[in-house]
Fold:
Amino acid sequence: NALTASGRDFRLMRSFRSDRGGLAACYRLEAAPGFRFVWAAHMLLDVSETGRLVVEPGTTSRVWPDHWRSAEPVPVVEGPWPSPLGAPLDGLTSDASALFFMLLGPGPVTVADGAQLTLRLRAEGQPAAIAIWRNLGGWPEASPYRSIGVEPAIGHHYDRDLAAAGDVGIVTETGVAEWELEISEAQP
Structure:
């Protein structure tokens, strides 16, 4: 059940396994030692107005308040979860806002909406994060809609070429980087 994608400078493999009541997506990146990369799993979720993001309070949150509407460079704000900008971001009620941010660390992050979907990224030695695209009717301005994206990520920046040292994944001297994304669900 392995899938492989190859580029000019890399080879990425993904396989799946079911264990501990959930699913694990296992990744292996082969490239030259020192190869810089960012990676994200992009999951768009259908979450109701009563849905919530459950994250360890105090988790460092890196926010790009105008990521989706301004040209580079986009200013960055960091602060503790759940209120890195002052107001809490854990509720998912449509409030005509749109925001992209990253929760720095491997998680877990739980999306609670009746059932609970929990994501944890295991990426030893890599800068792990969970990126969130929280569009609660704020984008696009002409015809806004609702979209919740939960994106486990390697890297603390959305763009490898704009990221500072330490904010991207690095292939080790072995020529390999490996990580796992664990997904589990619990019913109320």
